[in-house]
Design goal:
Blueprint lengths: L12 H15 L7 E2 L2 H8 L3 H14 L2 E3 L7 E3 L10 H20 L4 H21 L3
Helix pairs in contact: 1-3, 1-5, 2-3
């Protein structure tokens, strides 16, 4: 599994890891039932401490994207399609909050509604699959 981190960026490492795993699931490169590397192994591969990986895994576990293995081995599995999280009020609140902030900035920069909508659609259609492709 390949994850690219921006250690100098504003987004915490655990959020970057979680976002890229979700993108891999959305793109279909991380298939249901796939076992993810242990937090210690992934942290070693990324050359970071294991805490951000553990936080990412715990967040994805709480949201329903991952499941713990119960076959006597440690690790996390990508949830089955039936067990994947659905849209929730909490998710919609987060989505609206982030989009409101970005829309306000876009308006302040002179972006039209059509340009903002086009950018959102383009990201939804292409960037998720591009991000997800880097995970295998």
């Amino acid at each position: 599994m390949f994850i690219e981190l921006d250690v100098q960026g504003d987004v915490p490492l655990h959020e970057q890891i979680a976002q890229q795993i979700i993108a891999g699931i959305a793109a279909g490169t991380l298939k249901p039932g796939k076992t993810l590397p242990s937090a210690k192994r992934l942290a070693s591969d990324l050359r970071i401490k294991s805490l951000p990986v553990r936080k990412a895994y715990q967040s994805l576990l709480a949201e329903g994207f991952l499941q713990e293995r119960y076959d006597g081995r440690l690790g996390m599995l990508v949830s089955s399609k039936e067990e994947m999280p659905r849209m929730t009020d909490r998710y919609m609140e987060r989505l609206h909050s982030r989009l409101r902030t970005l829309a306000a900035e876009g308006r302040a920069r002179g972006m039209t509604e059509a340009e903002f909508s086009k950018a959102c659609v383009a990201i939804y259609r292409s960037d998720l699959s591009r991000m997800g492709d880097s995970l295998e």
